[in-house]
């Protein structure tokens, strides 16, 4: 098993280092922490099929949108509760 630092791994993946770090934090790419650096195993990359990568990417998208929808609904609920409280105070 060969470990690559984030900079070299991002070159191997063909993505930028910040994108690689985001994928590591979201769990799409498995990495190990060595001090302050992330290290990525080459064998982990070789095991992924295009189908598995697609499924992981779709799950990340769905998770992201679900979070956004939950935030929006929560915000709308707060506004509705405040409006009802204000209406009850006025009466």
Report on this model:
By secondary structure, the chain is an alpha+beta fold. The chain folds into two domains: 47 residues; 43 residues. The protein has a three-stranded antiparallel beta sheet. α1 crosses α2. The longest helix is centred in the last third of the chain and has 41 residues. It is elongated, with a radius of gyration of 21 Å. The termini are far apart. The model has no long low-confidence stretch (mean pLDDT 78).
Give a short summary of the structure.
With 91 residues, this protein is α+β, with helices and mostly antiparallel strands.
Tags for this model:
91 residues, alpha+beta, 2 domains, three-stranded antiparallel beta sheet, 4 helices, 3 strands
| Distance between the first and last residues' Cα | 71 Å
Biggest sheet: strands, sense, closure? Answer: 3 strands, antiparallel
Specify the oligomeric state.
single chain
Shape: elongated
Number of E-state strands: 3
How confident overall, as mean pLDDT? 78
Radius of gyration over all CA atoms, rounded: 21 Å
> Which structural category fits the helices and strands?
alpha+beta
SSE order? EHHEEHH
Helix content: over 70%
Strand proportion: 5-15%
Query: In which order are the strands of the major sheet placed?
Result: 1-3-2
Q: Flag low-confidence runs.
A: none
How many domains, in number, for the residues? 2
* DSSP summary: helix tally: 4
């Amino acid at each position: 098993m060969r470990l690559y630092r984030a900079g070299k791994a991002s070159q191997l993946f063909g993505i930028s280092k910040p994108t690689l770090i985001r994928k590591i934090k979201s769990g799409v790419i498995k990495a190990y922490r060595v001090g302050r650096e992330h290290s990525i195993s080459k064998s982990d990359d070789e095991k992924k099929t295009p189908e598995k990568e697609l499924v992981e990417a779709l799950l990340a998208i769905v998770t992201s949108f679900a979070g956004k929808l939950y935030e929006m609904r929560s915000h709308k609920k707060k506004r509705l509760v405040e409006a009802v409280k204000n209406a009850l105070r006025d009466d």
